[in-house]
Amino acid sequence: MSYFESRLRADFENFNEILSRLEFCEKLGIKNVILEPNNAIISIPLDLKNKIKTELKMNTFYRINLRIDNLDLFKRKMKQVKDFPDIISIESLNKEVQLKAAKDSRVDIVSFSNPEIIKTLTRGVISLTRQNNSFLEFSLAPIMITNKASQSKNFRNLYKFVQSALKFKVNCIISGNFNDIYDFRHPRALISICHSLLGISLDRAKKIFRTNPILLLERVQKRQNNNLEPEVKLIKGGDIL
User: Where are the extended beta strands (E) located within 147-215?
Assistant: First the structure.
């Protein structure tokens, strides 16, 4: 399987917006996209997934991102997504929530894509994420902005924390995570940025954009299988035997 854009946000109440974003990705030659609703929903309808699948010849996968800054709210939300069939990401300024998410087996990604949140990343979160075999997420969007002062600050933080995560060999996902479709880039271009600006070796950068998303999806599949009753298993396409 080829490279992934691991975080493509869209309004899931506007099918035309989803379609236009995916069509633009197709034109760029992007084969694999992980879609995320930018509106506050915690359930992605199966009929919407099927509609997207029939419209486009690309591999589309799904995730939700929960922005939570309160520990009690985190606990309540995790009960709501107990049997969620797709990727679950947590994004928080609260270090207690980050630590709780990093050791919760239901959480696949602890996201540090936001330029304010990335500054709160601690070695404890990195260690727990590694132990739990989950993923840390970073984004290149903050270093693509036009404000030079903010761009420079965001770059320094991104470089520092990406290098720290890689030093401890934690699973990493790096996404474009762009809002404007005209900022979209093929993952090969993002790999070059990671190599030339963030000091990541080409082999490791390729793994981040190709191998790690597959491992992430396999983690989700394994969680689904564990939630099934004995003698019940999933087959390709989501059917149950």
Answer: 171-175
Closest alpha carbon to 38 in 57, 58, 63: 63
| Residue spans of beta strands (DSSP E) within the chain | 4-10, 32-37, 59-67, 87-91, 109-111, 135-139, 171-175
Beta bridge partners of 66: 90
Q: How far apart are CA 43 and CA 61, in angstroms?
A: 14
pLDDT, tens digit only, all 241 positions of the chain = 699 999 999 999 999 999 999 999 999 999 999 999 987 777 899 999 999 999 998 999 999 999 999 999 999 999 988 888 999 999 999 999 999 999 999 999 999 999 999 999 999 999 999 999 999 999 999 999 999 999 999 999 999 999 999 999 999 999 999 999 999 999 999 999 999 999 999 999 999 999 999 999 999 999 888 765 444 444 444 433 3
- On the CB side of 69, CA atoms within 13 Å amount to 3
Report residue 34 as tokens: 């992980």
Token pair, residue 167, equals 């030093």
> Which residues fall within 8 angstroms of residue 213, CB to CB, at 6 or more apart?
4, 6, 32, 34, 173
Q: Are 84 and 66 in contact (CB under 8 A)?
A: no
Q: Is 130 exposed, middle or buried (0-12, 13-18, 19+ CB in 10 A)?
A: middle
Tokens of 222: 């394994």
DSSP code for 66? E
